[in-house]
């Protein structure tokens, strides 16, 4: 890398000559440095140093990750189901957030653990209360799209202090829920990045 920094752009042959190596011996090393983003190669010009640090290269990698790469299957309930049924669904599906849809399967609300816990405190009959009474409604629902950068969605989860966000597709009638992004999805991306499984 130092040779390229000092003499770039420089051909592979010239680098090999300076190191007293053959071009074939050097080829795998140059390929790794190029794939990692430290060097760039241009035909008939040679190699040159990108000037990027390891943290800049990591940041570039993170910014390329899309919601679609890590979204999971959404768990939805109809707006007319009871709070009791929503609690059972949340327990059986092992999720912390339910997305509430109307009869046309369009997003109308979100139910968190806190919403269901709040409704459970007191003497109300949970089988008689529909979830549309206690859910967070549009337009107060943060949504994201499959092509959004994952890092931006992570920032919104932190900013809004929520555990999950519906991944939606906009239709003429409203939002169709096609996935979910949760703090667990973010953790999976983080672990994959640490293991260098990404991109």
TrEMBL record:
Keywords: CBS domain, Repeat. It comes from Saccharococcus caldoxylosilyticus. PROSITE patterns: CBS. It comes from the Bacteria. SUPFAM superfamilies: CBS-domain pair (SSF54631), Winged helix' DNA-binding domain (SSF46785). Pfam families: CBS (PF00571), HTH_11 (PF08279). The keyword Repeat applies. Residues 70-129, 135-198 form the CBS domain. CDD domains: CBS_pair_CcpN. This is CBS domain-containing protein.
């Amino acid at each position: 890398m130092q040779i390229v920094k000092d003499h770039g752009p420089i051909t592979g042959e010239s680098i090999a000559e300076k190191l007293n190596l053959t071009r074939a011996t050097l080829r795998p090393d140059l390929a790794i440095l190029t794939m990692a983003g430290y060097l760039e190669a241009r035909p008939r010009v040679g190699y040159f140093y990108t000037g990027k640090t390891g943290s800049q290269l990591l940041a570039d990698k993170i910014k390329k990750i899309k919601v679609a790469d890590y979204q999971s299957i959404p768990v939805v309930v109809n707006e007319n189901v009871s709070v009791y049924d929503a609690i059972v669904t949340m327990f059986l599906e092992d999720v912390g957030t339910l997305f509430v849809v109307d009869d046309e399967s369009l997003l109308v609300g979100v139910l968190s653990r806190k919403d269901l816990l709040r409704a459970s405190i007191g003497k109300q009959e949970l089988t008689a209360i529909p979830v549309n009474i206690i859910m967070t409604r549009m337009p107060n629902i943060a949504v994201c799209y499959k092509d959004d950068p994952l890092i931006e969605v992570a920032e919104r989860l932190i900013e809004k202090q929520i555990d999950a966000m519906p991944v939606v597709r906009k239709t003429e009638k409203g939002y169709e829920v096609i996935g979910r992004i949760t703090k667990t999805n973010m953790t999976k991306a983080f672990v994959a990045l640490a293991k260098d499984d990404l991109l």
